[in-house]
């Protein structure tokens, strides 16, 4: 797929002090992309939900991340931090619809050195234990890596750490700049994958399955630790056949790495009433099954009830995925099924 190019850039006042802001302006100065030193939300406050969402997904905001207190990130890592929030992808089920409903734009944090200084403090305070960090909890940072170069810088920072490890996940393929750098095995790059039906129906503006697997091949060839997140696992007519085709395709493409331990993280589809409401406003014709009466109601960690598959379906999914992964990737490790 084509690399994301914003249709407009907004710069917050504080961001003007940072080098990355000026590097990004320089990159786009000949592209006729309007650049504003204004507040994006105020500028477009009169738009309705759908119009605001559509324009946000094409807008890049340069900002400063002042958050020094990191949130925990179980089961993926000890903490999460962000170089970016939001993403140009338009996945109908994206959990950011709940968490960042009012801010669907792509915000790039330009104070990368300060962000990494803060990470260093967390690592040092926890020595001699190893501290792990997730980079993709509120964004897909690879989606704009061709604009920021921040993931590369962060991987190089972690390559010098004895007690810090980095994890990130993506549905995009802007990974070429990460291939020939020293990562020192301290970064794990996972790919979020799914069946062609799910990608084509729900994951608009993201890379295709073929492109993601091709990127996984390159990342494995560069010696990174790699894994796959299958999320959301969705039950639909023909799901078993489609997921089996997915595993068989991956096995063929990644045969060369069959002795390497590849990890899998498995997350079933879930929704909250808040996300349902937002999804139906933004995607009125969605094919996602959002009927809470067919689901099990469970208390979620973010203070909302979530609706998950009924126990029998969930058990069937778990059994199916464990069997297929063992069959196609016998040396792999399933980190969790949730
Ligand atoms: S790529 Fe990830 S972060 Fe971006 S919209 Fe899709 S699920 Fe959300």
From TrEMBL:
GO molecular function: 4 iron, 4 sulfur cluster binding; DNA photolyase activity; S-adenosyl-L-methionine binding
GO cellular component: endospore-forming forespore
Gene3D superfamilies the record matches: 3.40.50.12110, 3.80.30.30
InterPro entries per the UniProt record, alphabetical: rSAM, SPL, SPL_Clostridia, SPL_firmicutes
Keywords annotated in UniProt: Lyase
Protein name (record): Spore photoproduct lyase
């Amino acid at each position: 797929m084509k690399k994301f190019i914003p249709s407009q850039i907004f710069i917050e006042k504080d961001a003007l002090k940072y080098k990355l802001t000026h590097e990004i302006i320089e990159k786009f100065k000949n592209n006729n992309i309007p650049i504003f030193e204004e507040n994006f939300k105020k500028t477009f406050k009169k738009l309705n939900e759908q119009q605001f969402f559509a324009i946000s997904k094409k807008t890049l905001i340069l900002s400063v991340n002042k958050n020094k207190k990191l949130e925990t990130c179980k089961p993926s890592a000890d903490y999460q931090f962000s170089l970016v929030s939001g993403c140009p992808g338009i996945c109908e089920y994206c959990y950011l619809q709940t968490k960042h409903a009012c801010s669907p734009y792509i915000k790039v944090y330009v104070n990368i050195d300060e962000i990494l200084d803060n990470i260093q403090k967390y690592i040092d305070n926890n020595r001699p234990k190893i501290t792990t960090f997730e980079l993709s909890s509120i964004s897909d940072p690879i989606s704009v890596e061709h604009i920021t170069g921040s993931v590369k810088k962060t991987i190089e920072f972690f390559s010098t750490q004895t007690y810090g490890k980095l994890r990130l996940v993506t549905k995009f393929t802007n990974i070429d700049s990460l291939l020939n750098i020293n990562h020192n095995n301290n970064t794990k790059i996972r790919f979020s994958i799914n069946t062609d039906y799910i990608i084509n129906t729900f994951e608009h503006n993201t890379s295709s399955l073929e492109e993601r697997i091709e990127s996984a091949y390159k990342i494995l060839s560069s010696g990174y630790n790699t894994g796959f997140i299958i999320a959301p696992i969705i039950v639909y007519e023909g799901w078993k056949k489609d997921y089996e085709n997915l595993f068989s395709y991956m096995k063929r493409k990644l045969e060369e790495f069959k002795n390497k331990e590849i990890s899998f993280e498995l997350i079933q589809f879930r929704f909250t009433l808040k996300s349902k409401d937002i999804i139906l406003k933004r995607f009125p014709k969605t094919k996602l099954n959002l009927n809470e009466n067919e689901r099990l109601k469970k208390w979620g960690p973010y203070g909302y009830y979530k609706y998950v598959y009924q126990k029998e379906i969930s058990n069937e999914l778990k059994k199916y995925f464990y069997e297929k992964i063992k069959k196609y990737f016998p040396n792999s490790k399933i980190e969790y099924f949730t």
